[in-house]
Amino acid sequence: MERSAVVAKTVASLKREAERVVDLVVDRIVAEIPSYAAVPRDRLRPGVAANVHDGIGFLVDGERSPVTADAAAVGADRAERGIPVEDVMHAYRIGVRTVWERFAREARRNDADPGEILMLAERVWAWADGVMVRAAREHRRVDLETALDAQQRRGAFIRALLSGTLDRAGLHLQAAAFGLNADREYVPFRARGGTDARAIVTALVPYFPHTSPPVTLVDGDVAGLLARRPGPKVPDDVVVGIGPSVRPADAVSAFGRASRALDTAARFRLSGVYDLADLGLRSSVVSEDEIGTLLYERYLAPLQDLPDIERTVVTYLSGGMHVEDAARALFIHPNTLRNRLRRFEELTGADLRDHATLAELWWALAYQSLGE
Fold first, then answer.
1. Model confidence over 146-164: pLDDT tens digits?
2. What confidence score (pLDDT) does residue 1 get?
């Protein structure tokens, strides 16, 4: 599309005052968009100037769309400064609107053809869309890289904190950088489940100290710090081990207890939230494999070919050692139940009236359940 003499004259006038237009655009951006107030003017102006001159260049030759690398550089710079992409697009629209207002006012003064001006306006905004898409794409790329980098650094910090490899001299500064207060207490946790890590984190969101969860992966488990003990309701296939509430500097030992609680609960195929106190002797059953083997061989191995006797003993113990109740549960006569219990004592040398024997028998049954 060839430019008329009137439009060419108008563009020439606009080129002469381009630097004043740049200053006007900068003033408007700073006044209208709060996030730009912190950007030094000497960093803001070059990007604005490049786009203003490109816009004027397009008015000179509308068939050419000079979408330069400046748009990408501006998008990247604004992302690095934490300016939202919506504000970046707003700033571009202010620039395009300001340039067009000055051009249209001068064109009317010169009695330019309205049809030509309307067609040119459509082309200008189409060009501006291309510039803004380029800037937005680069902004989002930098945003994503920044987020990933922050996530990786936060994960490395949490792993070092929980493993004890963190430089304690700089703990306060490092903790503050990731939104943690080195002087307050947090609950170390370790979680595992059939669902993915993101679902576990989502389930624990109400218990994190802030919106950027201090979590990481430790040997495939989700681990980190919570503001408080989580409630018992987690997805059915998820188990969470927690340690005592401690300051970040003391997290290593507490996280060790959380890991032990998780391993114990997982071995017993439990779901929910547990600390070591919740699990009682189960953690010892898991860790003391030799004792479990000895007790199994003493109390349960002799019953391998006598499933009725083992089932009777288990029902009797789990029902509070009430003969009548256990007999009803097994649909047998109480005397039959007493005979089976007596047979068990003869085979194993156990005394079901002795508390130590009962504790050992419980241990043997718990140990057996780990292998089922």
1. 655 667 888 888 999 999 8
2. 42
Q: Distance between CA atoms of 188 and 125, rounded to whole angstroms?
A: 54
Q: What's the CA gap between 95 and 26, in Å, rounded?
A: 8
Q: Provide the residue count of the chain.
A: 372
d(CA 261, CA 4): 81
Which residues, 6+ apart, have CB-to-CB distance to 297 below 8 Å? none
User: In which element (H, E) is residue 226 found?
Assistant: strand 221-226
What is the SS3 assignment for 349?
coil
Structure tokens at 352: 């079901």
CB contact at 8 A, 182 and 171: yes
- Tokens linked to 367: 């140990």
Distance separating alpha carbons of residues 18 and 12, to the nearest angstrom: 10
Q: Would the pTM of this model clear 0.70, i.e. be above it?
A: no
- Mean pLDDT taken over the chain: 87
Treating both helix axes as pointing N-terminal to C-terminal, what angle do 85-109 and 69-80 enclose, rounded to 10 degrees? Answer: 140
- Tell me what percent of the chain is helix, strand and coil, each rounded to the nearest 5: 70, 5, 25
Q: How far apart are CA 247 and CA 256, in angstroms?
A: 14
Q: Give the per-residue pLDDT at 116.
A: 78
Query: At 62, is the pLDDT very low, low, confident or very high (cuts 50, 70, 90)?
Result: low
Closest by Cα among 365, 193, 219 to 282: 365
Are the C-beta atoms of 256 and 207 separated by less than 8 Å? no
Give the neighbor-by-neighbor strand order of the sheet with 187-193: 215-218, 221-226, 187-193, 238-242, 272-274
pLDDT in tens, 256-298: 999 999 999 999 999 999 999 999 999 999 999 999 999 999 9
CA atoms of 10 and 110, how far apart (whole Å): 7
Higher pLDDT, 146 or 316: 316
Give whole-number Cα distances, 345 to 42, 116, 317, 351, 353, in Å.
91, 106, 14, 6, 10
Question: Quick check: helix, strand or coil at residue 147?
Answer: helix
CA-nearest of 91, 104, 103 to 27 is 91
Cα separation of 303 and 298, whole Å?
A: 10
Question: Residue 246's beta-bridge partner residues?
Answer: 186
> What span, in angstroms and rounded, lies between the C-alpha atoms of 339 and 316?
13
Geometric angle at alpha carbon 199, from 198 and 201, rounded to 5°: 65
